[in-house]
Write a structure and sequence with these properties.
single chain, 313 residues, mainly alpha, globular
Length: 313
């Protein structure tokens, strides 16, 4: 393995570690916000879900080769460096952005540095359109699911049984969210690093999972953002937000589209906040998160472009 490929593997593991730290909030933030579980137990559920998602469905997001041509270790390194730095900056600020966003932005930047014709612009545009589409659909799903779940649970007359049912559903929902994160976002990163061909796909899975699970230990700040700083959450709202987002992302996983779980979760939580009126939303916090969504892929694009230019100079 040459030094560029080795460095790319190291950066990929760092990216997975940061993804675990940043995106764990998408899986368990709403459950913690509803005070259903502790952060530590919630992260254990997330780890189990990610492992299952990576092993069962991550291959559906092995689309790196279809997004850009002329793949080389230099190009892969440029993509990984751009995505990692963008995600790291967001994590340090406590802003839950999507690793998929950062990776796609970095792919565009590296492709532009290599040559505009190397990029499959049609597929890129479909993915970018999903970034706009997902939060809007998630808001709608959040509102619909909120009333559907409310209608169903209202038929349970025993308060103890109701609380137990909601708690179990929330824990399963957290697992489901982690599962689709492993299948979709981690699957996308896997597709990039596997292109190096230095190890077998199974060995890459083990390395990526180890790094991601270690990253969960550093996720407390972004969990706090989703749990407490968008809108006040309670069990019913938490279940609605998490399930709506997970269902939406799992649907896109079947289409091999790396949709953002972050967008879906925050969108559904916003939908729940709107059921309580505009006063139920922390508008300033939502604006800050939205700015992060716009800035992050632009940062990864610029960094990967610069790195690629240096490597081919």
């Amino acid at each position: 393995m040459d030094y560029v490929s080795l460095l790319a593997v190291i950066i990929a593991l760092l990216l997975c570690l940061i993804t675990g730290a940043n995106n764990a909030a998408d899986c368990v933030g709403t459950t913690v916000g509803a005070r259903i579980t502790s952060k530590n137990f919630g992260l254990a559920i997330v780890a189990a879900g990610i492992i299952c998602g990576v092993f069962f469905e991550s291959s559906k997001l092995a689309i790196f080769g279809s997004l850009i041509a002329n793949i080389s270790p230099n190009l892969i390194l440029s993509v990984l460096v751009g995505a990692t730095i963008a995600l790291l900056l967001a994590t340090l600020q406590g802003i839950p952005i999507s690793a998929a966003q950062a990776v796609i932005g970095a792919i565009i930047g590296a492709g532009m540095a290599y040559g505009w014709g190397s990029i499959n612009w049609l597929k890129i545009l479909i993915i970018v359109a999903s970034w706009l589409f997902a939060p809007l659909v998630a808001i709608f799903l959040g509102v619909i699911m909120y009333f559907l779940f409310g209608s169903g649970f209202s038929k349970i007359r025993s308060l103890a049984l109701l609380e137990l049912t909601i708690t179990l559903c929330l824990l399963l929902s957290s697992f489901y969210a982690a599962y689709v994160l492993g299948a979709n976002t981690i699957g996308l990163i896997m597709g990039v690093v596997v292109s190096l061909g230095a190890f077998s796909p199974f060995n890459y899975k083990l390395l990526v999972l180890f790094a991601t699970i270690v990253g969960l230990l550093f996720s407390y700040r972004t969990i706090k953002t989703v749990a407490n700083e968008i809108t006040e959450l309670y069990p019913m709202a938490s279940l609605t937000g998490q399930f709506s987002a997970s269902f939406l992302m799992h649907s896109f996983t079947q289409l091999s589209i790396p949709i953002s779980l972050t967008h879906a979760v925050v969108g559904s939580v916003m939908g729940i906040g709107l059921t309580k009126g505009a006063s139920g939303m922390n508008v300033e916090r939502v604006r800050m998160i939205a700015r992060g969504w716009i800035i992050a892929p632009l940062i990864s694009l610029a960094i990967s472009y610069a790195v690629m230019k240096l490597l081919i100079f």
